[in-house]
Design a protein that fits this description.
4 strands, mainly alpha, 31% helix, 162 residues
Amino acid sequence: WRRQANVCIPLWKRGTKTVKMPVYMSDVAEGVVNALMDPEAEGKTFECVGPNSYLLSELVDYFYRCMRYDIHYRVPLNPLFSATVKMFDTMPAASPILSKERVEREHVSDILTGNPTLEALNVNLTRIEDRAMFELKMFRRHNYYEEKVGEYAEPAPPMVLH
């Protein structure tokens, strides 16, 4: 629902100013279980972030490489996209596909506040590069085509900030 003209992806400042630290859902679940079992964790707040930081623009480009799309353009937020968001926001639904709040939340950088992370709960964090190909397989271009082993090169991983 975000793409326009099937190749343009509207992102705030084209995704070059937003820092994300994606975390795998199983790592969060493991952290919750470990926190419940650890009496030292009682009353503490933990930050659920992944092991690496990336620019949103790098993640979007990497996801498109994983889905084997050759052409895509990251564009600034524009009036057409804003109208689309407003239309979805006013439609009756328990959780709209797109909403103004969701778009704003997507463009807020993940910043650590000094609270302990999932690593303090003995969670071995999963890198996005280890899961993205599997998670995005169903959205892959020409998904009906059964490829031969090694026919397609592995996509270049996103650049890690720190």
